[in-house]
Design goal:
This protein is mainly β. The protein folds into two domains: 292 residues, 7 Propeller (Methylamine Dehydrogenase, Chain H); 202 residues, Methylamine Dehydrogenase, Chain H (7 Propeller), CATH 2.130.10.10. It is built from four helices and 52 strands. The strands form 13 sheets. The protein has a four-stranded antiparallel sheet, with no helix packed on it. It has a four-stranded antiparallel sheet with strand order 2-3-4-5, with no helix packed on it. Strands 6-7-8-9 form a four-stranded antiparallel sheet, with no helix packed on it. α3 crosses α4. It is elongated, with a radius of gyration of 28 Å. It starts with a strand and ends in a 7-residue tail after the last helix.
Amino acid sequence: MLTKFETKSARVKGLSFHPKRPWVLASLHNGVIQLWDYRMCTLIDKFDEHDGPVRGIDFHKQQPLFVSGGDDYKIKVWNYKLRRCLFTLLGHLDYIRTTFFHHEYPWILSASDDQTIRIWNWQSRTCVCVLTGHNHYVMCAQFHPSEDLVVSASLDQTVRVWDISGLRKKNLSPGAVETEVRGISGVDLFGASDAVVKHVLEGHDRGVNWAAFHPSMPLIVSGADDRQVKIWRMNESKAWELDTCRGHYNNVSCAVFHPRQELILSNSEDKSIRVWDMSKRTGVQTFRRDHDRFWVLGAHPNLNLFAAGHDSGMIVFKLERERPAYAVHGNMLYYVKDRFLRQLDFNSSKDTAVMQLRSGSKFPVFSMSYNPAENAVLLCTRATNLENSTYDLYSIPKESDSQNPDAPEGKRSSGLTAVWVARNRFAVLDRMHSLLIKNLKNEIVKKVQVPSCEEIFYAGTGSLLLRDADGVTLFDVQQKRSLATVKIAKVKYVVWSSDTSHVALLAKHAIMICNRKLESLCNIHENIRVKSGAWDESGVFIYTTSNHIKYALTSGYVLQPRPWMSAAAGSVWVRQRCCRATTRLWKCATRGPRTLTSSHSSISSLATWPSCAR
């Protein structure tokens, strides 16, 4: 699990991602609603009008609105642009557990401890339907993402699926019968009901805390106080239990489907988040906190981002690293995607698969080292337990069918990192953090005593950069001695210029630019995360942060190009050229392989902007 953002606060009971902006809403047990920018790691706003815990929270998909429901029996609709509550909906007689907007209609769905589910029209500010049938607290109720269905979970140990097509037809068709005529029970003058129970799912032995639809398949996931996560399938006539995921050892608070993979995420009062494989019904990952029980999970609708609320705040996280392993040589970019090694020609933009990779590792490829002389690659896989990390040595086939590429046999061995140091030699940092030099047959040639280090990076033929907790050391493999050291904590990436005259050391919030002898030329500090970087052929270093593209000279002068915001940006040609260059760089920074070296002309145009355009 990669934690992207973390907060410290009162217990978080509700979470909602904004569909477009990098925002997340957190509703707290102390009555406060927080609006966070998880990319900038800042609190944008907070809303404090509820009396008591706020459990339900949800962003509207299009409008600048969100809805909240609390233990004060109130549902509040807020406008985050106006920074205030627009109105309050009253009708529930006990704590409100969840509140959700409908994806299309002007409806809000609420679940309450008064044993009812209510559907509200937020435009007319009235209750249009009450769903009754549960005989204990209703802990959760959600709309189906595309059909006229609602799923609910209750402490009466059942999950119910409701058909609300009658409500849609009556409320949203021409000549619809007014709510006042039918009454909010949802039964009209002729006895027809707007919402009927379609399925009652029985199988949990204790109260059910959460239920959710699959985004595209006829599946439901539920989590309950019996410590089980259940998967249910349904059709038009019936619903049945598919399987049960066992592993939690306390009440399951929440369970959701992964929006794009065959995975289920669940969290529990046992202080863990678990990831389950839907096809195998087995746990594939477990993340634990020492002291905090988990209460709620949220999945971003479009990105591989999740949020979990616990006793002392929340975390925003990814399940796995999305940045593909890549290497650049001349005008060729090599990168790993979907178990294939691919090659992108910068000049022609031709992207082809060159070979299929060996399967067997459940972890994605972490880093790559390319040897142009032998046309070979080292692919390193980083396991959760570092001691289980491996690398694979492949010779890239000279001729390959891009539609059906070869799958050559690779040589796999254990090791944290493997890097080429000569035409027919590579260095391996093994699990004991000692350095091994191997040949093309993957045989150990010699062992080298090195200073204590956590990671190794390429530093030219016969040299390596060794990273420890406090700095980076330039090490000569042939002479077996350290040549220079600089102090910079927790370097993540090392980027060499094409002639290896300069190197940029990238940490989480800092960049150090050094010369070939590892003498520091400048230090750059950023308040937000540094993501990637590349050298322009004229010696300018271009790098991305979470929300900017910037470039720096070796003297330490940092510039953030904004040509379209300058009144004196020169001719229209200059402005258009600047915008095109920035757009192309931004695409490179945000798509697949995060390298900015895919367009030398674009990069050099940034370095040669006239001063008026900077």
